[in-house]
Amino acid sequence: MAELLPTHPLEAWSTAFERLPDTVRVVVEPFVAMVDVRLGDVGSQARSRLGVDLPTVPNTWVSTDAGRVVWLGPDEWLLTSTTEAPEELEARVRTAVLPMGGSAADVSAQRIGLRLTGAHARDVLAKGCSIDVHPRAFCRGSSVQTTLGLAGVVLLALAGDDYLVLVRSSFAAYLADWLLDAVLEFSTTHHS
Predict the structure, then answer these.
(1) Residue 29 has what DSSP assignment?
(2) CATH 3.30.1360.120 residue ranges in the chain?
């Protein structure tokens, strides 16, 4: 039997994204393994078992050796890995948190990552997001669950004018179209 190769839901938008001006770039991030972790106790035992610090400050994220850990709620985090397969990450995290009464679920196929960069990236986000994304309020290490356009997203401030938008796969096409429209006013020439 032939192996099915994964097709990215936003593959059809790649040409349109490539035509965007340098002042606002949209790049589809490669797939990464993602695990949703629920855990009541985030003390040193969790740190030693997971091998990463879980952020305890609301609306923050931290880097790991191979990904990120995003605070989603008082007892919920999103762990990502660029080096582990989804089932490996889920198994490793589940083994670590089950003895502490926690849970882990593979959510790798649930979200698509879009990277927004450029001098007008913040302006584009401000068009469809009620969160203050000014660097004094939303700087590197900040994250938030919000809406962009009408799509629910997890928004991460990476650095300066560099943002990561995690959107549910089922809303990825809608958000891609919304972003292309929102960027138009920052283009010196409009592309179709």
Answers:
(1) P
(2) 11-30+109-186
CB atoms within 10 A of CB 35: 27
168-183 confidence digits (pLDDT tens): 999 999 999 999 999 9
Q: Which CATH architecture has domain 33-106?
A: 2-Layer Sandwich (3.30)
Paired tokens of 63: 């880097």
| Residue of 61, 71, 175, 60 lying closest to 127 (CA atoms) | 175
Contact 160, 135 (CB under 8 A): yes
Q: Which residue has the tokens 């991030």?
A: 29
Kindly state the percentage of the chain with pLDDT values over 90.
Answer: 72
The two structure tokens encoding residue 97: 């948190």
Determine contact, residues 138/183, Cβ cutoff 8 Å.
Answer: no
- Rounded to the nearest 10°, the torsion over CA 50, 53, 58, 62 is -110
Contact yes or no for 7/174 (Cβ under 8 A): no
